[in-house]
Amino acid sequence: MLLHRPFPLDAPSRQAFRYTFYAALCVFLILFLLQPFGINELSLSARILQASLYALVTFVLATLNTFMLPWLLPAVYREEKWTVGKELVHMCWQLVVIAFGNWLLNHWLSGTTLSWYMLIRFLWWTLIVGIFTLWLNILLKQQRLLKKYKAGASQLDKQLHQAESPAPVLLNQQENIVFTSENGKEQFMVAPGDIRYITSADNYVQIHFLKENEPATYLLRSTLRKVEEMLAPFPQFFRCHRAFIVNLSAVAHVSGNAQGYKLHLKDGAEPVPVSRNLNSKLSEQTLLLSMG
């Protein structure tokens, strides 16, 4: 179903200010050009002022929503669970909040009493103007990213398959890796070819590996950054996400959807996500392995 398709959840960042600015600019242009709510009866300078105030309210409320909602509702705003439908609901909520804020602004500017009728008018105008544009933008973005990441996943698959029989010297497959805890009192030794992936777990890292061809885990008090440094001599290990290091030689295939790439391991474990800002580095790393 279309509404259940994966969709990227953009983390709050400086780029979010650009999107909220564009939303405010659209509000300014719509009010200045279409002149609803009696704005057409004002002088040119007054129209510009009022349109600017409505745009400012839009910018402030949209920015607060963008940054505060993921912080207030972390269980809801999780990228692995984000879909086209959730993105649409989120954007509709943005429109409702903006309409409510502009309704209060209209009351302040005009001095009229607050009325449900005027609130409904603001909601109607905001939804009519925004909902079609938002829905079209979400659909086009989902299709564009899906096509992009599917094509990229196919290319990564080719590079990984070329690296299925890598040079042993390059990949150091014969040398055991010794992981040491932060206090230096604990050590864990494992062959690099047996490691599947490593993930962070609070103040620990969880090493997922094969023991006698069966999946096993080992919990070590350390950080993912320190483990990444330990694995630096082994180019088959790649920090693909803020919480994951993966053994690329254990990847069976790569899939792609609108959220980006997923690395599927040979032993059928849960797919490992790839951060979108690391896509180019992943391509470089798999290309290096294929040339090994």
From TrEMBL:
GO terms for molecular function: DNA binding; phosphorelay response regulator activity. Pfam families: LytTR. InterPro entries: LytR-like, LytTR_DNA-bd_dom. The chain crosses the membrane at residues 21-39, 51-76, 88-105, 117-140. SMART domains: LytTR. Keywords: Membrane, Transmembrane, Transmembrane helix. Residues 179-288 form the HTH LytTR-type domain. This is HTH LytTR-type domain-containing protein. It comes from Niastella vici. The lineage of its organism: Bacteria, Pseudomonadati, Bacteroidota, Chitinophagia, Chitinophagales.
